[in-house]
Amino acid sequence: MDDVVTRLDVPGTFNFREVAPGVLTPGLLFRSDALNRLTRDGRRSLVDLGIREAIDLRSGFDRRIGGRDRLRGTGIELLRVPMDGAPHGVDPRTLTLPVVYAVVLDRHQQDIGTVIRTIADAEGGAVVHCTAGKDRTGLVVALLLTALGIDRDVIVADYAATAANLSGEWTERMLRKIRRFRVPVTDELIEVLAGSPPDLMTRTLAELDARDGGIDGYLSRAGVDDGVKSRLRTRLLAG
Fold it and tell me: Which end of the chain is flanked by fewer CB atoms within 10 Å, N or C?
C-alpha cells in the first residue's frame, strides 16, 4: 500500500502530503509536519493547492520552541487545537509511542472531534498538522478515515508513510534540539521523534475497537455523529 502515499514538494516542509490519495476526493485533505518553516514558495504552494484552512495541533510549548505557522499573506484561516503528546512531567527517557497515543486519545477526545467536524465543514482544501505530522495528526487522520469507512490497510499505510519522509534532515534537526536539553538519545526516543510503525497503528485501532462501543462509540462521544459522518462522505468521497 505504500505506493499510494506520496510526499508533495512544499518548500519548508518534509511530510506534506495528501491523505489517502486515490481513495479520497483529490485536493481536499492534506496532512503535514509543522508549517513554521514555510518559505515564500511554500506559501505559494499551499495557495496553488487550494488550501483554505490549516489546523495546528501543536501544544503551546511546541509552538514556543518551533515557532508560529508562516501563513501570512496566504488568506488561509488558521485554527489552533492544542494537544499534548505526552503526560505532564514525564521523563523523556521513559516515553514511548504507545504512551503518547494513550494520552492523545484519552485526554483529547473532544479536540479530535473538533478537528474532524472542522474538516467536514471546511470550504476548499484543509491541512492538519502537528510537529512531525505523525502522532497527533496520525490519530486524527486515522479516526477520520475510519469514520468514512475506509479500509484499515489504507489507514495504516497512510500513517506508516511518515517515517520515510522524516528520515534524514528532519530527524537530525530534532535530535540536535533534544541534545541541547541533555536528554540521552535512545532507540525508543528516536522512534518517538520520527517513527510511524504500522503495527502500532494497527494495535491502537484494535484497542479502540475493543472499548465500549468501539471506534464508533469513541467518535460519537467526541461529537462525530451520523450527521458529521454524512458531511464527511459528501465532501471527501463524492469524487
Answer: C
Q: Tens of pLDDT along 101-148? A: 999 999 999 999 999 999 999 999 999 999 999 999 999 999 999 999
130 in active site: yes
Whole-prediction pTM value? 0.94
Helix, coil or strand: residue 17: strand
The fourth-level CATH superfamily of domain 9-229 is Protein tyrosine phosphatase superfamily (3.90.190.10)
Going across the sheet that includes 29-32, the strands are 17-18, 29-32, 125-129, 51-56, 77-80
Closest CA to 191 of 211, 214, 218, 171: 171
Task: Give me the catalytic one of 38, 51, 126, 130.
Answer: 130
Break the chain into its structural domains and give their ranges. 9-229
